Amino acid sequence: MDATSAPHYIPPEMPEYGEANHIFEMMQTMLERLLIYQPKDPIPFMIDHLQRDNDNVPKIVILGPPASGKTTIAMWLCKHLNSNLLTMENLLAKEFSQLAAEATRHYQKSKIVPSRLLVRLIQERLNDEECIRRGWILDGIPETREQALMIQSLGIIPRHVIVLSAPDTVLIERNVGKRIDPQTGEIYHTTFDWPPESEIQNRLIAPEGISELETARKLLEYHRNIVRIMPSYPKILKVISSDQPCVDVFYQVLTYVQTNHRSNAPFTPRVLLCGPVGSGKSLQAALLAQKYGLVNVCCGQLLKEAVADKSRFGELIRPFFEKKMAVPDNIILKVLTKRLNQQDCIQRGWVMHGYPRDLDQAHLLESLGHKPNRVFLLNVPLDSIIERLTLRRTDPVTGERYHLMYKPPPTIEIQARLLQNPKDAEEQIKLKMDLFYQNSAELEGFYTRAITINGDQDPYTVFEYIESGIINPLPKKVP
Q1: pTM for this one?
Q2: CA-to-CA distance for 252 and 246, rounded, in angstroms?
Q3: Alpha-carbon distances, residue 234 vs 51, 158, 162, 228 (angstroms)
Q4: In the chain, how many H helices and how many E strands?
Q5: Which of 70, 205, 414, 430 is 20–30 Å from 277 (CA)?
């Protein structure tokens, strides 16, 4: 057999390092930059790109009809993300720029800046150091499909595009009452957002072009253009209704721009399910293993198998089982490490449950290089746990398992011979729950990016939430 085609051993640290440091995305972005700019000497270009370290800065476009609130949302977003806001007004006002001066002359003459000139002005602004370092938010640009394509042809690719929408009748009502503070640029409204200070009230002015007829004309032009712009941004565009309180709109926009788009990077799930006894961890692990081919790593089952196989570890575990004592962490970790280091776990991924149960165990697991990339906390109330577990029964004749509420025995004869496992007694369950809650807060603090899921619902609904959390990237942490 050719040695090059034989299965190769892949240390678990390699894929973990690649995922943790986003190596695939880094190389993909670098390749995109090379193809867009086509530098004569690629090596210094790549070094400069890596030193900038700005792949994850905000690159956002916010579009919307007149009076949709896009400027307000863009300003709030700019402050929250510490980014740079680019509007037609501040692009024209840029000092010491020949392009800005030329664009201003065009605007003063015809109230329009030619698309080619506007795009060059945007390119000049985005090359400023502060835009490179802190990212940018384009407010209301592009206005046409022609501008969108010209911007793309220069390699200016936003990461998120938001389109605000609202009924025309609502927008006309908003626009007619709009007022602007000439000193601060803040926007107010005669009905919805009137400033309490008389000083500000007295200096507010009505902007030009806000009559009902003028607004209707602008809306017609906007609708004609937006349907041609939207196909230019597939997979990165989200439409959000602005016919709701401004704060709600902002948080929906903020949530979207904090999400990462799905990557083409190879991804091997390493899933940890945490939750109290009876929360459904075993069922969810089985469903994940069945659908995605993950290795189902149940800590308790591994220990039982080691004892049954009479392995070296099994002989160490047996005395603890016989005395009904907890198996020491160092022995558990050796059994777990042996299983997680096998090639099926490395190549297919794994879903673990039953370990870790406390902070010390979590630290030990991570110190050995086994760090989950998805952690789910199944939250189930005590009453539901007691209902799930205390009503479980087993048929000693057939071994069939029943539940007196959800899966009752078919006949009175079978019901009469059912037995309850002593572990399912209410007193035992409450002791286990108390122990779980003593450690759960520390585990949540350790796994800061864990996803909390309501486990007190249909198991297949729970599975859909877990599945979504695995498939989609984790949201970015923004201060």
Answers
A1: 0.64
A2: 10
A3: 30, 11, 12, 12
A4: 23, 14
A5: 414
Spatial strand order of the sheet with 59-63 comes to 84-86, 136-139, 59-63, 160-165, 237-241
* Strand partners for 187: 180
CA–CA dist 232, 242 (Å, integer): 22
- Closest by CA position to 66, among listed 299, 242, 205, 272: 242
Q: Mean pLDDT across the chain, nearest whole number?
A: 86
Helix H or strand E segment including 202 = helix 198-203
Q: Of 83, 81, 122, give the one whose Cα is nearest residue 100.
A: 122
Q: What is the pLDDT of residues 334-369, one digit of tens each?
A: 899 889 988 888 888 999 998 898 899 999 888 888
- How many residues does this entry show for the chain? 479
Please report, in angstroms and rounded to a whole number, the separation of the first and last CA atoms in the chain: 55
Closest to 452 measured CA to CA, from 345, 380, 396, 404 = 380
* Beta strand spans in 360-424 (E): 374-379, 392-394, 401-403
- Give Rg (Cα) of the chain: 30
- What are the per-10-residue average pLDDT scores of the chain (479 residues)? 53 76 83 86 88 84 91 91 91 83 84 88 89 91 93 90 92 83 82 83 82 87 94 92 90 87 77 90 92 91 88 86 85 89 87 91 88 91 89 89 88 90 87 87 89 90 90 62
Place of tokens 């993909």: 28
Angle between helices 426-446 and 382-390 (to 10 degrees): 130
Backbone angles phi, psi at 292, to 5 degrees: -110, 0
Q: Which residues contact 57 (CB under 8 A, 6 or more apart)?
A: 83, 133, 134, 135
Residue 427, H or E segment? helix 426-446
The predicted-structure confidence for 393-403, as pLDDT tens digits, reads as follows 999 988 898 88
Pairing of strands 160-165, 59-63: parallel
Running DSSP on this structure, what letter comes out for residue 321? Answer: H
